[in-house]
Every structure is written in C-alpha cells, then in structure tokens.
Amino acid sequence: MSPSSDAQEYRDYGLESLRNASQSSLRTKLKIFTDVETPYAEFDTEDSPDSLFDEISPAATSSLPAMLHAPPIPGLFFTPSLLLPVQLADDVTHFCLDNYFNRPGVNQIMLFGVASSSNAGAPLSGLPPVLTTLLSTVSSLLEPTLPPEIHALLFPPNPTRARQAILNLYHPGEGIIPHVDLLRRFGDGIVGVSFGSSCVMEFARVDKAADDAAAPLQLFLPERSIIVLSGDARYAWTHGIEKRTADLVADAGVHRVVQRGVRLSITFRWLLPGADVVGQDD
Ligand SMILES: O=C(O)CCC(=O)C(=O)O
C-alpha cells in the first residue's frame, strides 16, 4: 500500500495526526486527535457556576462526576494506579490499528484463542503474540491486587476454555449501550484494558427495584488501566459508556473535565461450552 493511500485510510478514521507525527509516541498521537495538549480542565466544584461547564464542554455535563476509584460493586476490581507499561500499550495499539482497524468503518473485531490438550499451559493459540503478551502482563500486574480465586478465574494455569478478545475502537462522542455480556455465550471473569484515551464506564443495577439501583455509578477508566468484572459486577450490573466527547471526573473535591480521544479497548471473556456455535441468542 502506498504511503498516500495509507494516509487516506487514517484520514478516514480521523487519525491523520497519528500518521503524521512520526516522532512522538502513539499515545501522544492519539491525544493530538483531541486537539487538547493537556486533557484536563480543572475547576472547583463549589465556586464554579454551571455555565463554566458549558464553556468547557457541554457534552460532559449530562451526568454526575465519575469516581477515580472502584464503586462498591461486588466482583468489580479496579486499581487506578495499576497501569500497563507505556511501551506495551503502544505496541498493542499499533498492532491493532495496523492489522484490524485499517479499513474505513471497522470499529469492532473479535478474536478467539483456543486451548487444546496440545497447548495446555501454553499461551492460547489463535490470539496474536502481542495479545498473549498483553494477557500475561495483565495477569502479573493483577496478581498482587486480586483475590487469588478471582485471579485463578481469569488466568488459570491450564485453561480449558476458549477465550474471546473483543477489540472496540471509539472516537470521541461514541459509546456502548449499557449491557450485561451475553449470559449463554460468556462465562464469569472478564478483564478489559483501555488504550489511547480515558472514558467513563457506567454501572447500573439490572434489578431496578434494588436498594442501590437509584443512579448509575460512574468510574473513570484512564488509558492503560485494567478493569475486572466478576460475580455481581458481571451478572447483576450492566456496564456501558455514554456517547460523550468529554467526561466529568471528581478528584479530591475538584471536578475536572477530561476530553476523550480515540480509545481502543480490549476485553477478554471466556466462551461457554457450545458458545462457538454461530447464530445463537444469549
Ligand atoms: O470498551 C469497553 O471498555 C467495554 C466493551 C464492552 O463492554 C463490550 O464489548 O461488551
């Protein structure tokens, strides 16, 4: 492919700055897309009139500020300081953009890794090496913070089930509707990683009559952060991402508007037995 047609393809994604700024890291290039050098705009909650929200970003004002720490949902594990190394995040992002998101209109890819008796204990075959490296790095990073049984659920030494990696590419203003991952297709234990941009993930009770069903809980996911959904967080709560160009975040009494850039997420889920049959409902 000629450099010019390459450039055209990236223009189609609004990622021309990613292509042109060859000296900077991909992380920086993705942020350039937002046209915001420093993605944080800061103001004090109490002193600032509502109009200030509008001046900064009308899109960010539609909901309560997000938390930096995991809301109290059983089975939800998130440590804001636990971030993937920059180099690995860049490698994964480059690989995925170049190999899977190199055609206009593509914003979701599903990959599958299959464990068999011949590769038990080895990285799941079917996933590209950069994603098996990602999985093993995420496993090592999470090990000190997760309860051992949750870590074993996500990273069993000898996996017997197939793993799906779903790759989603979001431009600013895009999101994903609140949902529970398909019950008959995926098992318990889901791990997701954010690349390129932050976003806010919203959690809402499936049971609208529950005591804590009042308002969705909002969690800020920085780029390179890792989130784990298990148990109630996987089955009794929906998760989703509002269509916004910016998010409102509460940080030690200060509210910040954080602009969204282009975000890639990679979510790993276990396929249930028989879930590889195409055309089934949940
Ligand atoms: O982008 C994300 O982090 C969430 C993706 C997700 O919920 C899904 O693909 O089902």
TrEMBL record:
<dbReference type="InterPro" id="IPR027450">
    <property type="entry name" value="AlkB-like"/>
</dbReference>
<dbReference type="InterPro" id="IPR005123">
    <property type="entry name" value="Oxoglu/Fe-dep_dioxygenase_dom"/>
</dbReference>
<dbReference type="GO" id="GO:0006631">
    <property type="term" value="P:fatty acid metabolic process"/>
</dbReference>
<dbReference type="GO" id="GO:0005759">
    <property type="term" value="C:mitochondrial matrix"/>
</dbReference>
<feature type="domain" description="Fe2OG dioxygenase">
    <location>
        <begin position="156"/>
        <end position="272"/>
    </location>
</feature>
<dbReference type="InterPro" id="IPR032870">
    <property type="entry name" value="ALKBH7-like"/>
</dbReference>
<dbReference type="GO" id="GO:0006974">
    <property type="term" value="P:DNA damage response"/>
</dbReference>
<dbReference type="Pfam" id="PF13532">
    <property type="entry name" value="2OG-FeII_Oxy_2"/>
</dbReference>
<dbReference type="InterPro" id="IPR037151">
    <property type="entry name" value="AlkB-like_sf"/>
</dbReference>
<protein>
    <recommendedName>
        <fullName>Fe2OG dioxygenase domain-containing protein</fullName>
    </recommendedName>
</protein>
<dbReference type="GO" id="GO:0016706">
    <property type="term" value="F:2-oxoglutarate-dependent dioxygenase activity"/>
</dbReference>
